Amino acid sequence: MDDPILARPKPPAEPDGAQSLDPQDWEALRTQGHRMLDDMLDYLEGIRERPVWQPAPEAVRRRFDQPLPRHPSDLESVHEVFMESVLPYALGNAHPRFMGWVHGGGTAVGMLAEMLAAGLNANLGGRDQAPIALERQVLHWMRELFGFPTGASGLFVTGTSMANFIAVLVARTGALGPAVRARGVAATGTRLRAYASASAHSSLARALDLSGIGVDALRIIPLDHRHQMDIRALEAAIVEDRGAGFTPFFIAGTAGTVDVGAIDNLAELADVAQRQQLWFHVDGAYGALGMLAADIAPRLAGLERADSIAFDFHKWGQVPYDAGFVMVRDGALHHDTFATPAPYLGRGQRGMASGSPWPCDFGPDLSRGFRALKTWFTISVYGADHLGQAISGCCARARYLGGRIETEPELELLAPVSLNIVCFRYRGDASDKLNANIVADLQESGIAAPSTTTVGGQLAIRAAIVNHRTADEDMDIFIEATLGIGRRYSARNWRHHDE
Q: What is the pLDDT of residue 117?
């Protein structure tokens, strides 16, 4: 006979319609949901026929300047607003000729997984649940990929900016001890010093700001002729800082710089960190996943010796935004940097409160979405080798683009094509303003979307190839459009173009 204490309770009556947010007509919702899904699949299938980007007209912008809605609207009409006023005017990074910034293209598989995660509505802060087991599966895969030990920890975060911040905090705890969490850096009387190259991402400086160490604690090391951190300059800076009373604690190498795509000499940086007993961090926002590609992985030698790695699945991993990740070699130190006892976070040996340690013990977020699901789906469906081939393809497209540029006398490469980023310019008088106008015209035309950066004191047209959809023909279209715009400016007094 069933135990009456464990008997399933009688289902409650349906809640009042004014209280519940579930649909009164599930079949109608199902029909509309299928239409919405089909619209997004149509969008991805036909992405090449769309402009890369187009600015939203003023009438569209005014549509989003409305007061708080007090009464319901039907789902179909709200979806129509999205289709008319949002989808056509997005940034366009799903398009194969979006090359402006290091944005991944996403996949239909990842989109479907995101739908499943939203329906489940899991909070991965902690407790005993299968979604956390799945997140730990991805961590196991990353340990294998990067050669990290079984005790290494990992955490899904919004992106590499947050991952860099977490790495700085763990390194701070390693340098000053767990008491720094209560006392603060100032109370220790220690003047910490961190090091990064002139091409390092600005999020590293922000991480030092947010951590309380201060932006001035970051010493910028010049680049060598390969656009890598100058190792001799780094070692000299460390010696100088120690002599001046600073406590060096953190070296940040970069695997794929945002300006030209260079990879620091990670093995030599690991040697310096080991000799100087400093924390070795690698900002591998997009480049770290080059470990999936057989032709790129050897260039990342030394990555396996890092104390922490920050990277994004939503870049070269092609997972829909957002899906950043941080790995820390010393999982115990990572835990001690963030774990915070609280009565409402009590742990148990059984029941829902078991499964400790929880993800919230390794980062600042207690509420966490199920980012791991779309990542797990992407890796499971495509496989590591196929994803690696897509990464290799991005670099092949960049080399092809670099070769096209070198054959055009009107164009000039400004940096070697190291990975997947190509920096060049259209030759001409006052070329900085000329090239800025070329980029703006390309973007506004909808043909292609590069961005700009500065290389060697010159403004460069910058093309970052991160999208698995990009093909050689897209590079040809891009180059022909660039030449056409440049020639039109050269044929007239282009300086008056934007006056």
A: 98
